[in-house]
UniProtKB/TrEMBL annotation:
Residues 297-518 form the Glycoside hydrolase family 2 catalytic domain. PANTHER family: BETA-GALACTOSIDASE. It is an enzyme of class 3 (hydrolase). Residues 55-191 form the Glycosyl hydrolases family 2 sugar binding domain. Monomer. GO terms for biological process: lactose catabolic process. It catalyses: Hydrolysis of terminal non-reducing beta-D-galactose residues in beta-D-galactosides. GO terms for molecular function: beta-galactosidase activity; carbohydrate binding. Its EC number is 3.2.1.23. Residues 204-294 form the Glycoside hydrolase family 2 immunoglobulin-like beta-sandwich domain. This is Beta-galactosidase.
Length: 934
């Protein structure tokens, strides 16, 4: 036994390779792993709240969110000019850690994922290296020679909000977004063997060609580097190796993989490369990277090609932002954003205006989004000295993400052209560099990214020399832009040879929870409410409209044709996916009655349709095998899911006419005969406890009562919202068991005929003539908004609509309690209650005075509810019709940001033009001003 023990000792001492020596980098977090899982350090700030007092702070975080210092929005200097003084604060951090003796003879790095802005790092009182300048980039220091082994080591970090380098401030802090201070991304130690691989750059082409450039931490002549490529099951499918040449610290490895599964946003297939560094048979170090096989080509004067297929970007700009945490992040937040972007049927995201956290890019890799990774430079650029190390840090960190299609060298003039060639220095795949700009004639590398062109200038650009891919368009301030006019722009890009799609500004309202003001969410006036979702990702109407417009299964059928046989024309707007990989489910439904406690519909019958064989960008037909009695149901629902069973969109068509759908609602028994009473100034019609008074000098309703309310304040109408109308005469007469009031007008409003039926339903038939272009058309009444409790309706919803944003709403029975939400502002309650509602069959308003119902047997009725706007500026936009409640045949378009003029709205394209009206319009409305009909 003694001999065996001695032999084991000999083996361990004589052959150290047999001991369990770590060959991978060991990561030890000094901070928390993310903002929701922080660690506590000591901290003090030089100015603002809690100035010059040492206390505790969570790391990572922004110190403003922890109750320190002062808030700044980046453009405060623009708002306040010379009167404004930036918060030029410094934050001092302290923490300690132990360096065990086992770390001796290893390489120890301290890594910062992101710190705003200038960051000075000391270990045991000694500078770790040069002060880092630039907030959004990973940087690190080798601190091996500064540690005390087996003892506690002091880490001190001084972070200055304002950089000592003016161009860093110009690029990052004088920008049109919130700016903060502090260590906002994780800090960790990386412990590596003395000989190791520093970083790697991968180029994996669609034809299976694989290149790997390995950067060693030092010159390691004679060492062997081995790369193994593994598929998603972990099976090795290829291997390659090389020996490090003399006086070299890099190695280039190449191999080929036969018929790899290709990475696209539709098919995000990932592989892994496992890399070993060896000295003879001794394994020195091992690391790995995920990657995807794909080939990106910019074919000038043609388009962007991925794996030989032309692709178009359905993209959005995204800030890294969450109200409670600012730009500090957490994995669940990143996942939420990627899922929401894909739920809108988008395929691309621009990381505006800085590289995001690594986790977000990993999700784009694995779930499938095309990415523009951007060097910060908001209208002003880093100088070359400051910018060169930041390009290096960005590309070294991000180069192996297959989701990244472009590098962006700054935004809107923030381009230092001296840095353009630096990107390829660290990216072996040599991705194209773009300039995200806002000036014409500033195309770069064959791609014009000009911002905020209108529809007609976009047409010209698409006919010009360069590929056109606006990296910002359709500014989504408040309820403007986003999806408004998007369908017109998307059709331009989809059908144009050089149209490459674009990126809507912006994903989410950038609202910060102000810890200095009772935790209100501050969007800095009109600077930051630019999202298609709210600060906590509350979905605005544009979210669902974008989802329909960008659906890769395009269905243009607006209503069921009279001779419908189950055939639905479809277009495949995928780039790589056949429609036979999708699932098509149909349902025949019955809409809930108005008296039902619940909204929605009940599914009576359902089935799955055979998915048609339609290749990408081709057209085909979907056949629904409906039962023979399908016409007896209220509506037809078609729900389409992708090959991951995620819903792409859900269409609902009415089967029955409005008149048929209304029949059950109108069947109310009469309790007493209809009467007509005339006074000096009034004609009063009464039936079933409801009395309606018309003024004899105007023809307008001026008073309403019923058995349940002494007064119902629905009055002062009808008023023509466009055109002219002057009262001419009024008369009344009986008609069977009903009473009729007929009003004649001069001008564009011709005649209004009121008929009170014995059951209390009041019919209104009217006609008007308009010829020309108008923002809206129809009639209005008054009703006090403050008395309204809610609405329930059968029609399209649940969101309001605009002339140039009719998408994203479907037929159903909806119910919405009153709210005073103005889109993009607190309290972010969606859907908004006030607005234009489309294709109303019936609507019941609940008020403090009781309920009343409006209906129409005619199609295409818009109901406008109360006072609202889309975009708030010096003059809220767009102008509203007169009155409080309107019944309209035409509604206005909406612009895309503050300062919208009529010409700017028109410039957004055909659907944004004024309504062209010709001839006479006739419509019938039905009112019930009594208790809820059952």
């Amino acid at each position: 036994m003694k001999f065996v023990f001695s032999f084991l000792i000999f083996l361990l001492l004589g052959f150290p390779n047999m001991a369990q020596v770590p060959t991978q980098a060991e990561k030890i977090y000094l901070s928390g792993t993310d903002v929701k899982h922080p660690k506590v350090w000591q901290f003090k700030v030089s100015d603002g709240r809690k100035a010059d007092v040492w206390s505790d702070i969570n790391v990572p975080s922004h110190w403003e969110q922890e109750g320190f210092g002062t808030y700044n929005y980046g453009r405060d200097d623009v708002s306040f000019g010379k009167l404004f003084k930036y918060a030029d604060e410094q934050g001092c951090y302290k923490t300690s850690f132990t360096a065990p003796n086992t770390w001796k003879n290893k390489e120890i790095w301290i890594v910062f994922e992101g710190s705003m802005t200038d960051t000075e790092v000391k270990i045991n009182g000694e500078l770790a290296g040069k002060v880092h300048q630039g907030a959004f980039y990973r940087f690190k220091y080798n601190i091996s020679d500064k540690l005390k082994w087996g003892q506690s080591n002091l880490l001190e970090v001084k972070v200055s909000k304002m950089s000592a380098e003016k161009t860093v401030n110009n690029a990052e802090r004088l920008a049109d977004f919130w700016i903060f201070g502090g260590i906002f991304r994780p800090v960790f130690l990386e412990i590596r063997p003395k000989e190791n691989i520093d970083w790697m750059s991968i180029d994996a082409k669609a034809n299976g060609q694989f290149k790997l450039k390995v950067h060693l931490n030092q010159k390691l002549e004679g060492r062997e580097v081995i790369a193994q490529i593994l598929d998603k099951q972990g099976k090795q499918i290829a291997t390659t190796s090389t020996i490090i040449a003399r006086n070299d610290s890099t190695a280039l490895l190449q191999t080929n993989v036969s018929s790899p599964a290709l990475w696209t946003a539709e098919t995000p297939h990932l592989y892994q490369v496992k890399v070993q560094l060896k000295k003879g048979k001794e394994l020195l170090y091992t690391t790995s990277e995920k990657f995807g096989f794909r080939t990106i080509e910019i074919r000038k004067q043609d388009g962007i090609y991925l794996n030989g297929v032309k692709i178009k970007m359905k993209g959005v700009n995204r800030h890294v932002f969450w109200p409670e945490y600012g730009r500090a992040t957490f994995p669940e937040g990143d996942l939420t954003d990627v899922k929401l972007i894909k739920e809108m049927n988008m395929n691309a995201v621009r990381c505006s205006h800085y590289p995001p956290d690594v986790n977000f890019l990993q999700l784009c890799d694995s779930l499938g989004l095309y990415v523009i990774d951007e060097l910060t430079g908001w209208q002003k650029a880093y100088n070359t000295k400051a910018g060169e190390p930041l390009v290096k840090e960005m590309v070294m960190r991000d180069t192996n993400h297959p989701s990244i299609i472009f590098w962006s060298n700054g935004n809107e003039g923030g381009h230092n052209k001296d840095l353009d060639n630096d990107f390829s220095t660290y990216d072996i795949s040599n991705r194209t560099v773009i300039h995200a700009h806002h000036k014409p004639d500033n195309a770069f590398n064959g791609i014009d990214c000009n911002h905020y062109e209108n529809y007609y200038s976009t047409q010209k650009l698409l006919a010009d020399t360069n590929i056109y891919m606006p990296t910002e368009f359709l500014h989504a301030m408040h309820d403007g832009g986003g999806a408004a006019a998007l369908a017109d722009f998307w059709e331009l890009h989809w059908n144009a040879k050089k149209g490459a799609g674009g990126f809507i500004w912006n994903f989410a309202d950038e609202g910060i929870m102000r810890t200095d003001h009772q935790n209100i969410i501050d969007i800095n006036g009109i600077n930051a409410p630019d999202g298609v979702v709210g600060p906590h990702r509350e979905k605005e109407g544009s979210f669902y409209a974008i989802r329909e417009i960008y659906s890769p299964v395009k269905i243009s059928m607006k209503e069921l044709p009279i001779d419908f046989t189950g055939k639905i024309p479809v277009e495949n707007r995928y780039h790589f996916t056949n429609l036979n990989q999708c699932t098509f489910r149909w349902q025949l439904v019955k809409f809930k009655d108005k008296a039902d406690k619940e909204s929605g519909y009940t599914v009576e019958k359902s089935g799955i349709a055979f998915a048609p064989n339609v290749l990408p960008t081709e057209y085909g037909t979907l056949q629904l095998d409906l039962p023979t009695d399908w016409q007896t149901y209220d509506g037809l629902v078609l729900q389409v899911s992708d090959n991951q069973n995620s819903e792409l969109y859900r269409w609902v068509w009415k089967i029955k006419s409005n008149e048929t759908l209304l029949k059950p609602l109108l069947q109310i028994s009469a309790n007493q005969p209809t009467t007509a009473t005339e006074t000096d100034s009034l004609i009063i019609l009464k039936a079933n406890g409801i009395a309606v008074s018309f003024h004899k000098n105007t023809g307008k309703i001026i008073r309403l009562t019923n058995d349940y309310s002494a007064k119902l304040s629905f009055t002062n109408g009808p008023v023509l919202v466009s055109g002219t109308a002057s009262f001419a005469e009024i008369k009344h007469y009986p008609e069977n068991d009903a009473q009729v009031v007929e009003v004649q007008y001069q001008g564009d409003l011709k005649k209004v005929r009121w008929k009170m039926n014995a059951n209390g339903w009041l019919e209104m038939e009217y006609e008007y003539t308009l010829n020309g272009k108008y923002p809206f058309a129809g009639i209005s009444f008054n009703y006090p908004e403050g008395l309204v409790l809610g609405a329930k309706w059968l029609g399209k919803g649940p969101y309001r609509t605009w002339k140039n944003r009719p998408q994203g709403i479907t037929y159903n029975v909806y119910e919405n309690l009153y709210n005073n939400t103005q889109t993009g502002n607190a309290p972010w309650i969606y859907p908004e209650f006030k607005g234009y509602y489309a294709n109303i069959v019936w609507m019941e308003l609940s008020t403090m005075e009781g309920k009343f119902t409006i209906a129409s047997p005619d199609d295409n009725l818009f109901v406008r509810l109360f006072q609202f706007y889309a975009i708030n500026g010096a003059t809220p936009h767009p102008t509203l019709p007169i009155g409080d409640i309107s019944f309209l045949d035409a509604i206005p378009a909406v612009g895309s940001k503050m300062g919208v003029s009529a010409s700017e709205v028109k410039g957004l394209g055909p659907s944004s033009d004024l309504n062209t009206l010709e001839g006479t319009k006739k419509r019938k409305l039905l009112f019930y001003f009594g208790a809820t009909p059952k």
